[in-house]
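User: Let's play a game. I give you a shape written as tokens, and you guess the letters that built it. Ready? Here's round one.
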């Protein structure tokens, strides 16, 4: 019984790690992961993320995000810059405006 329980726990842990790794493969998933990491799980699912036409050489692609709040100030962080580094996407900047 203990072995079966350990296998289930390790299987669930491996699944969570695999899903977390997948969030680096898409710009939108990277933004949602960033929202989730700021302890806003509902907002990470409900946020409206729209890619704009702005591409900055330093910061990357600009995305407009509705529903991402700064917990300290209560302000909405309306834009996120996401840059591709190799095979993964990373958030290079976030704030209230470009």
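Assistant: Ready! My guess for every position:
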């Amino acid at each position: 019984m203990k072995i079966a329980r350990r296998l289930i726990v390790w299987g669930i842990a491996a699944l969570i790690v695999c899903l977390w790794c997948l969030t680096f493969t898409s710009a939108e998933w990277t933004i949602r992961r960033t929202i989730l990491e700021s302890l806003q799980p509902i907002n990470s699912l409900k946020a409206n993320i729209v890619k704009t036409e702005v591409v900055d050489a330093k910061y990357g692609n600009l995305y407009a995000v509705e529903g991402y709040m700064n917990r300290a100030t209560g302000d909405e962080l309306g834009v996120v810059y996401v840059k591709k580094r190799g095979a993964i996407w990373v958030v290079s900047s976030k704030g209230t405006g470009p």
